């Protein structure tokens, strides 16, 4: 059997210093998982007032901080949002600990957030923000359960 010699995206992130092994820290995980609740509340208010760009950024931030909580639990420090999404995809999505759809949504939110935040032109948001809100809320709840901090 031939072994796959290609490095995974996560391995490359570690090599490049974009992800770094640290001591697992449940206190940081608990603190980080509080952030998504704040951003979800903000997103809800922004969606209601039809401030789409900022609502989208708040939804991404909720997803990012939830994912970051898992990294703290695992003993990983991040220096790249891209590497966070790839870590979640490889370590949790491929093993079906979270759905692969949730892992992919995290990365697509990251990409779209970059366009909104860094583009020289004002992008048109055609996405259904309420649907994205539901996806993010489910992602956050799933991570809370993984951390054993969620609703019982």
* Molecular shape: globular
Task: Give the integer mean of the pLDDT values.
Answer: 90
The CATH architecture designation is: Up-down Bundle
**Rg from Cα:** 16 Å
Uncertain runs with pLDDT below 50, 5 residues or more?
A: none
Number of helices: 7
Class by alpha and beta content? mainly alpha
Oligomer: single chain
What fold name goes in the CATH topology slot?
A: Four Helix Bundle (Hemerythrin (Met), subunit A)
Distance between the termini: 45 Å
Helix content: 55-70%
Written description of the protein model:
The chain has 152 residues and is mainly α. The longest helix is centred in the middle third of the chain and has 23 residues, at 52-74. A two-stranded antiparallel sheet has the order 1-2. The mean pLDDT is 90. Helix 4 (52-74) crosses helix 6 and helix 4 runs parallel beside helix 7 (129-147). The chain has helices at residues 9-15, 26-32, 35-48, 52-74, 81-93, 100-118, 129-147, and strands spanning 19-21, 76-78. The protein has a single domain, classed as Nucleotidyltransferases  domain 2 (Four Helix Bundle (Hemerythrin (Met), subunit A)), CATH 1.20.120.
């Amino acid at each position: 059997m031939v072994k796959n010699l290609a490095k995974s995206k996560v391995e490359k992130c570690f090599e490049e210093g974009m992800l770094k092994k640290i001591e697992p820290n449940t206190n940081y995980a608990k603190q980080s998982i509080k952030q998504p609740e704040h951003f979800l509340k903000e997103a809800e208010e922004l969606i209601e007032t039809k401030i789409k760009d900022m609502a989208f950024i708040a939804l991404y931030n909720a997803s990012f901080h939830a994912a970051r909580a898992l990294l703290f639990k695992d003993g990983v420090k991040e220096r790249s949002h891209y590497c966070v999404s790839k870590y979640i995809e490889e370590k949790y999505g491929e093993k079906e600990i979270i759905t692969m759809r949730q892992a992919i949504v995290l990365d697509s939110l990251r990409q779209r957030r970059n366009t909104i935040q860094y583009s020289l032109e004002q992008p048109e948001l055609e996405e259904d923000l309420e649907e994205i809100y539901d996806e993010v809320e489910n992602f956050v709840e799933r991570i809370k359960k993984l951390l054993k901090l969620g609703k019982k």
